[in-house]
Design brief:
Distance between the termini: 40 Å
Helix content: 10-25%
Number of strands: 46
Radius of gyration: 27 Å
Structural class: alpha+beta
Strand order of the largest sheet: 39-40-42-41-43-44-45-46
CATH class of the largest domain: Alpha Beta
CATH superfamily of the largest domain: Alpha/Beta hydrolase fold, catalytic domain
Largest sheet: 8 strands, mixed
Oligomer: single chain
Strand content: 25-35%
Length: 798
Amino acid sequence: MNTKSNPFPVSGAEMLACYERAKTVMRGLGSTRVVRNSTVYPTWIGRSNVFWYLREFLLDGDLDKPGKEFRLVDAEAASNERAFDHSLLAALLSDATGESVDPHNLPLGTVEIELAPRVVEFTAVGQSWRYDEESGTLEASNRYPNEWEICPDGKQAVFARDHNLWLRDLQSGAERALTTDGEAFYNYGSSSTMWGSGARPVPPGLPVQVRWSPDGKTLFTLQKDRRKVKVFPIVHHVPADGSVRPQLIESRVAYEGDEHIEEYRLLLIDVETGRQRPVDYPRVPVVQESNTGFFSRQHGWWHQDSRCAYFIDIDRYFRRARVVEVNTQSGATRVVLEETAETNLLLANHEAWAPNCLYLPATEELIWYSERSGWAHFYLYDLKTGALKNTLTAGEWRVHNLVRFDPTRRALFITTAERIADRNPYYRDLVRVDIDTGEMVIVIDGDYEHEIANRSDFSAIYARFICADADACNGVSASGDYAVATRSRVDTVPETVLLDRNGEQIMVVETADLTLPEGWEWPEPVKMAAADGETDIYGVIYKPANFDPSRSYPVIDSTYVYNPCTSLVAKGSFTQSGVGGVNYYYEAALAQLGFIVVQMDGRGCSNRSKAFLDASYGSFEDGNKLEDHVAGIKQLIERYSYMDADRVGIVSTGRGSGPVMGLMKYPEFYRVGAGTHIFDGRLQLSIRSADRYIGPEGSAPGTLMLEDRAPDFKGKLLQCVGLLGATDSTITATLRVLDALQRANKDVDVVVEPRVMSGVSSYQLRRIWDYLVRHLQGNIPPDGFELCGTTIDVGDLP
């Protein structure tokens, strides 16, 4: 054991102070208690160069009094002002509803702002409203539900009811059924692949999956078929309604290797007669997990002449992608473009994001995303002939997201990474590309991660809940004249700037306001070599408050060894670090307890080269190459004397098999592990990742699963179990491993929560903290520390 002085508090009061600091950090996740305005997502108003956003603040500097206000930024005037009179609107809304309305926290949803005159349309208290700033009046309006698809002439709408599609005349209110044969598990216009499987109720507001033809005469839609998908049972041993008898929920879930998966039957419907025209094409497999759906994720669209439509078909194993044209009069189809891959192909940087492809109706062209060169790049195709017209980007670097296309100047705004040598290859920048000449202009770059709203990633999810027109939430204005970007690293304060199209900074829109725990130490980005000794890998070190480099600290590998869907290490700070900043708060909070916490992206993750990702192909169980974690931490221990080689633990406070895998494969390195749901590729959703990263051949013969490695297990393990384990993190995988460990006569500590699904509850998180403090530090945790007091995901901490 390392003999350097122990920095850890031994008194109960000092340990309690560490826990309070950790709790302070964790309570910043999903709230404004730690950081405000870490990321700005602009919503542009029409084709103007004016956008609105939400600013967060504290009333009187009180953490328990958060506030928000709508701000209006005029890029041409370089001004930033309140979008409207919040106090007046609050008073009017209170009078109209009879409910108390706080002007500092207006309960507005799906907001749309008009400029001349200044009008705010929004939903609140179950009603749509229209507020006129000039006249100071508020009136109820008839804004239609978000889930309706409105006809181009605004006279009719399509919606889903009882598994069928219905048509509503928006003037008379008359309704009629367009389909009548829909049924459970074979429903029309299904809004989602992720929801409604039976395990989770479908949330309100998801759009019906229908697209109107430009002439308003025909609908392009789908019928999702899950009838032959196997039943997956979930048992509520402690039902929420208080009953004693267990309740059984039967969902339909396809797993790797199943014969039947969810499929789409594509069809066309004549609006006037209701007559269906089947699309003459095989069923399209559901291969993408999404909380919106096929058309919402840009998998299908219309030609502007209404005589044909297009859709993207990706095979079950992501080895072939096609763009298919449909003759809308006959239903006949023609494959316009096809791409194949030996392993798998991605059409976006994350498996769940919309394809990074864009149809250009005026010129009948398609911007197509591909990793065919070994790097992700954009290509321009002629949709009439299927011929490649231009390679838009090329080189040993990658594009990330398609942000905006300016049709007037035929300019494409995209985010890129890895273009600059010796820079963190995950840091994104924003560039503008002329799609005819290939000329590239840098709009913003530098040694920072740049978060720029676009239609594909986390910003698109945010936009769906706050913007009436989600497409308006974009990092580049519709005119193509201005851009908004938030920049930071894990060790800097996020700052949002407004720039013109040539990269000239106009103004700072927001600088994040932070309330950090006393003694806060900024995390440190680090670079290491993978286990192959050749590949560069990157990570972050999180340090405790009042860090003393002359002392020795136990080390925790915070990992999400689960699948290769994305890189998980934070690139920016706090919520600007991506996906709500989850992989920043967890690690920063854990470090406050007196640990050095390391997180890294090993080989096999996305957002690098195709070869980097393919390192994990066929080995789904180790999608983040745990051998790289071991190699990387050993290098850091040599580099930093404050890291204790004899006290290394491994934790997964989200989901993942890292802790149990570490104690099975590398027990001489990891001494203590703690985690939540264990993953098994055989029990992983087909639509999520399993088929994609294992392939039709399945795991190689002789592949050892985690349960097979039980005899090799050594060390201390706390395994948390939620008995309602969701369909993408089934409890079965965890129980199979626990059963194998018990049959191998191994001692494991287990926490079981009957009413918890995926993720990590506050109770589980507190128990994980206690376990690591007790067994990795040798200290006594506070008795029954109140982290939250409820079994909810940590992101919901009050």
